[in-house]
Amino acid sequence: MSAHTQPPADHDFESLIEVDNDAGVDLGEPDLEFHDFHSADGVQGKIPGEENRRFLERGAPPSDRPVSIWTVRYYQKYFNVETADVVKRCAAALYPKSYFVEIVGDNPDLYGPFWIASTVVIVLTFSSTLAGAAASHLAGVRYEYKFGLLSAAAALMYGYTFVVPLVLWAVLKYYKSEHANVLECVTLYGYANTIWVPVSLVSISPIEIFDFPTISNVVRWLSAAVGCAVSTTFLVRNLYPVLNSTEARTSRILLVAVVAAQLAFALVVKIVFFAYSIEDDDD
Description:
The chain is mainly alpha-helical. The protein contains eleven helices and no strands.
């Protein structure tokens, strides 16, 4: 049986902390006193208020220092728009009567182009799926959902909204255009996509309910043509002064390229999302 160790007596603890007074070690007064961490101005903490602010702001670039393009703070100014501004710009894109640069002024944005492209992706996928399901039902066959529609719509809309303006801006800079601005190009192409929201909704043709598939197909072609015409007019009207800043021959080539790209874009939208090849189901 093991023996239990008895706790040491109080005088044993005292012997452990004995200090030779001849060594010159002063343990100070036995009583303890807390320090007052309140500064004179009433702010709690040992660090004064001004020093504390400088400490918290350490690492943040001063307002006069240029912000890196790889930081989120750099792009905040491009999202500085209100809902009324976005609605006004969308209306100007749907009815391209006045110059868009007069409406935007010196505040082009990326907020509208991003959310317009996202909205078109969702509406385009929904409309294509619903129209295909309706056409299949009226034809008496089973509709098979196309899972690639969403990814195709996203690749098409985001690519056309952001990649094509970058290419156009690069070409303009190559030909030494004095008015080329990458943000304005992205803003123009982004708001030009507004028309594809009503076009997608119209493409869900209710005429198929009355068993007129030919007329329904004509409606889809006409809606795609209207969307192409409105967006092309909007782009040409606002890009022409920029394109015209290059040489005459170059400006004509670029103008034709812009129109051809819009025609190709509208054709892809019609064929990929609103053309149906319904086969009989043998099951």
